[in-house]
Protein: ABC-type tungstate transport system, permease component
Amino acid sequence: MKATISYTLAAASLVLFSHTASAADEQPHIRLATTTSTYHSGLLDYILPEFEKDTGYKVDVIAAGTGKSLKMGENGDVDLVMTHAPKAEASFVDHGYGVLPRKLMYNDFVIVGPEADPAKVAQQKDVFDVFKNIAKTNSTFVSRGDDSGTHKKEKGIWEQTKIEPNFGGYRSVGQGMGPTLNMASEMQGYTMTDRGTWLAYQNKLALDILFQGDKNLFNPYQVILVNPERYPTINYQGAKVFSDWLVNPRGQELINNFTINGKHLFVANANEK
Structure:
């Protein structure tokens, strides 16, 4: 009799476990399009397991740069975006593609280059003079050239210097931040990078930070949901759960706690006015 009861309980437990596992498997995944900096820096690898553990949702990440990420949102191919190009994000929301934009975190951009510093970047007073000197000395500058948030920021700086970036040393490579840093290191050229990816890659590169701290290099990130009225089949509920989790104390604490070699890569700012 005891053996029968034990077997029955075991069978019931197995059925319950199988049902729970099946329910988790059937729960719609959340599709996130994001800039490559959140991926290459290691931030998503750090926070997503905690989100999945807290909520049961799984997040499918497409790291494609801000421009391509927003385009995927416009096409309804993802459920939310995490990007860092304020003007493009505002347009995304204003045209009805995105809803509930929220501040998430920030870091900054830095200019890195060879120790020899042929363009005397380290001696300049602002980032506009940095770019002018790189062009004037025809030094190698490796641009992402991929319509990412970093690339948009770089283009904005060139526009403000009134210089067309078509000098001999300018290289547009159409790559993410990690590969761009590797190319700049191999070519002993300059590039502009977000600090997070730099900290993740710096030990592998023959480059140094040569210019930093200019207010014009501020780099804010937002999380924005794709508009469910435009695309009713997206996983809006899951995306909203993820967005809420990111901007609430649990997600914000994890973002602040993320470090590489003891250095913080991002500052959470969802609750700043």
